[in-house]
């Protein structure tokens, strides 16, 4: 585990995972900023619950989602096609803060609302064609802390677990999506919500 400070004097860790490039900023936003953003996004966002198809059966997705972006390119995953709503001022503010530190521009954000520990996000890679070859995904966590898991696709005993705290930023880039899957498992004892924003670039 390697601890560093960014040019903005933000603390971050860079876990040493083979075939991956991930960074974690535990306090990217202050407690107060994170709480303000959580409240604004919970209220302002047009949340929806899509159905997903798994092995020919249809289920409601175990979380609410929304897609915002700067152009009209659609984004498809798990048989769902989403068309982005224009970025709101709140989302643009968050996006700018992230772009300064990540030194990358994003044109889309997928939001997830996990209403409680029964909501989840199953094992997947963010490897859709529209994300390009080595996508950089910047993931902001607001609200209750939830564990995030990664596992290597070939080396089954290579796993990594990290709790994503309120106001944190987790970045996955390089070959991470080729070699690793990630999930946000159900956490039965959690009864409060979490909002996640994943900034992406659709090409
Ligand atoms: O909620 C999270 O931290 C993960 C979200 C995620 O993996 C996704 O939306 O692709
Ligand atoms: Fe993902």
TrEMBL record:
Q: Which Pfam families match?
A: 2OG-FeII_Oxy_2
| Gene3D superfamilies the record matches | Alpha-ketoglutarate-dependent dioxygenase AlkB-like (2.60.120.590)
Please list the cofactors this protein needs. Fe(2+)
Please state every residue range assigned to the domain named Fe2OG dioxygenase. Answer: 105-203
Metal-binding keyword on record: yes
Q: Which UniProt keywords apply?
A: Dioxygenase, DNA damage, DNA repair, Iron, Magnesium, Metal-binding, Oxidoreductase
For this chain's UniProt record, which GO biological process terms are given? DNA alkylation repair
GO MF assignments: catalytic activity, acting on DNA; demethylase activity; dioxygenase activity; hydrolase activity; metal ion binding; oxidoreductase activity, acting on paired donors, with incorporation or reduction of molecular oxygen
Q: Which domain of life is it from?
A: Bacteria
Protein name in the entry: 2OG-Fe(II) oxygenase
Q: Which organism is it from?
A: Cochleicola gelatinilyticus
| Taxonomic path | Bacteria, Pseudomonadati, Bacteroidota, Flavobacteriia, Flavobacteriales
């Amino acid at each position: 585990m390697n601890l560093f400070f960014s040019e903005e004097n933000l603390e971050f860790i860079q876990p040493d995972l083979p075939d991956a490039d991930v960074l974690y900023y535990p306090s990217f936003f202050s407690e107060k900023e994170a709480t303000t953003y959580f409240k604004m996004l919970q209220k302002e966002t047009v949340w929806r619950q899509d159905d997903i198809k798994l092995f020919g059966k249809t289920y409601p997705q175990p979380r609410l989602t929304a897609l915002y972006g700067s152009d009209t390119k659609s984004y498809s995953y798990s048989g769902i096609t989403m068309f982005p709503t224009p970025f709101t001022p709140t989302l643009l503010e968050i996006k700018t803060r992230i772009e300064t530190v990540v030194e990358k521009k994003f044109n889309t954000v997928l939001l997830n609302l996990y209403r409680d520990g029964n909501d989840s996000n199953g094992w997947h890679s963010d490897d859709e064609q529209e994300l390009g070859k080595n996508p950089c995904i910047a993931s902001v966590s607001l609200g209750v802390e939830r564990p995030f898991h990664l596992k290597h696709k070939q080396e089954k005993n290579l796993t990594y677990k990290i709790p994503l705290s309120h106001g944190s930023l987790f970045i996955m880039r390089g070959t991470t999506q080729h070699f690793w899957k990630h999930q946000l498992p159900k956490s039965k004892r959690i009864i409060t919500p979490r909002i996640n924003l994943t900034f992406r670039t659709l090409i």
